[in-house]
Structure formats: structure tokens, C-alpha cells
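To: structure desk
From: M.T.
Subject: fold request, one chain
Message: Could you run this one when you get a chance? Sequence is below, nothing fancy, just the single chain.
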Amino acid sequence: VQLQAYGGGLVQAGGPLRLSCEFSGRSISIYHMGWFRQAPGKEREFVAAIRWNDDATFYTNSVKGRFTLSRDNAENTVYLQMNSLKPEETAVYYCAATRTGLDLYLTRMYEYWGQGTKVTVSS
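Reply: Done. C-alpha cells follow.
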């Protein structure tokens, strides 16, 4: 299984950005998918997750209403649409996959990780 995250870049505060995570090696349809981010000098933190069985989505409080996580099983890809970005959201964003459907906000619950894509939000 391999995950490839892309779509990061430089964006002005208040602007949008869409991240993608391509999943290969197996069908993404039976994996719960998550996005995490890690700012310089900080721990990796949960951003959003989507369950494979019912497409239920979960978000950290700070991004609710601004970020939307979706999946396209036919394309083996998940998308994180980020709107109204803030400078403090500058970080490397990682996608991850797991068959375990519990505690999707915890990094240790994920089996596979992508390499990360850097998002820089300028003020």
C-alpha cells in the first residue's frame, strides 16, 4: 500500500487549497482515511477523517465549517478541500489509512502514511 499526497503550496490567508491523496496497492474503499498536519516544532495533529463504511466525516474543531473531506473510491483518492485558510495552519499535511475504525483522531491508529505535502499560508 502506498499513499501519495499532493496539492500543497503557497496560499494567501483566507484562500482555498485542495489536497489530494492517492491510494495504491489495494482498494481504498475498505480503508478509513485521515489527514493530519505537523507545523514546525509541533506534534502531528489530527485534521479530518472519513470512514469507509458510511462516509461519515470527522473534523478537529478548528477546521469545522471550513474544511471538507471526501473520497472517490473509483479514483482511489481522497480530497481535503480547505477554505478560509489561516497562517497558523501552515504545516506539512499527511494523509493516512487504516482498517481500524476506532479513534481515528489518533496517529497511532493508522497503518499507512503518505509522505506529506507542505501548505504555507501567508498573512
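Reply (cont.): The chain has no helices and eleven strands. Let me know if you need anything else for the meeting.
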